[in-house]
Design goal:
8-stranded mixed β-sheet, 6-phosphogluconate dehydrogenase C-terminal fold, Rossmann fold, alpha/beta, 48% helix, 13% strand
């Protein structure tokens, strides 16, 4: 098998590492960061390092676009010139409607493009933070868009090789859901840390595990998250308004000293959280 990975950050490098652990594969890695390429090559995760796409891409069974949203369209254009038509191209972005509207059409009539989203990652970034088995047991969402059954099954096979649990979803529904369970939570985590920049920085000395766990994701790449917020702007604004309204309700309950109703709301949230089942990582 031959796979090209364009973008050797946390996700791209983790894909390379996981593939090397599971299958006989030649990996072409494309990234402007020479340090990341050299590191991944020294670790044995990649075989052919390239600064920009070239003929090494041609004939890959899979081409994975693992770049930030702000550059993915231009990166896709640079890859197009080296596709023979047999390659299956996938992205790993956490926004899908923007991808099917702005990236998928570039490949029409050239190579198959299947939008995918691995529900996996950490707050860290870069090839040096690659995680073995990052995708094992994690959900992988495929949002088919003018794809043949053959292309979808080929995409499914790739991610199941890495141990992912594949599900299918409409790209617009995907963005509505992930605005609520991913994009808004990241924004709130950033905002909570931002609150401490108003002269309350001293308070951070007393933060315990609760603050640490809640704000872990605020250490994520701002570059990446600004682009996610931009590309899922409409859904995020709707959910942000709902959250603001909910916080106002909580404020009013405390202001009125209505602790019975406050307890009821907290208990409902607590029970829902306890009922959630998350994939077990090995």
């Amino acid at each position: 098998m031959k796979v090209t990975i364009v973008g050797l950050g946390l996700i791209g490098a983790s894909i390379a590492l996981s593939l090397k652990e599971r299958v006989d594969v030649e990996i072409v890695a494309v990234d402007l960061d020479r340090e990341s390429l050299n590191y991944a090559k020294s670790m044995g995760w990649i075989d052919v390092p390239r600064g920009t796409p070239d003929s090494s891409v041609t004939g890959s069974e899979y081409v994975v676009l693992a770049t930030h949203l702000d550059v993915i369209r231009e990166v896709a254009k640079s890859v197009l010139a080296f596709l023979s038509g047999s390659e299956l191209v996938m992205d790993v972005s956490s926004v899908k409607a923007w991808i099917v509207e702005n990236v998928a059409p570039l490949f029409q009539g050239i190579s198959a493009f299947v939008p995918t989203h691995p529900i996996a990652g950490t707050e860290k970034h870069g090839a040096k933070n690659a995680v073995k088995d990052l995708f094992f047991g994690a959900r992988l969402i495929i949002t088919p868009w003018n794809n043949s059954d053959r292309d979808i099954e080929k995409a499914r096979y790739f991610w199941e090789l890495l141990g992912s649990k594949v599900e299918f979803m409409d790209p617009y529904e995907h963005d509505r859901i992930f605005s609520k369970v991913s994009h808004l939570p990241h924004l709130i985590a950033y905002a909570l840390v931002d609150m401490l920049t108003d002269g309350s920085e001293y308070a951070i000395r007393y933060a315990g595990s609760g603050f640490r766990d809640f704000t872990r994701i605020a250490a994520s790449s701002p570059t990446m998250w600004v682009e996610i917020f931009r590309c899922n702007r409409e859904n995020l604004l709707v959910d942000l308004e709902k959250m603001i309204d909910l916080l106002v309700r909580y404020r009013d309950l405390i202001e009125r000293e209505d602790y019975i109703r406050l307890y009821e709301r907290l208990e409902k949230s607590s029970e829902l959280r306890k009922s959630l089942i998350f994939p077990v990582k090995r």
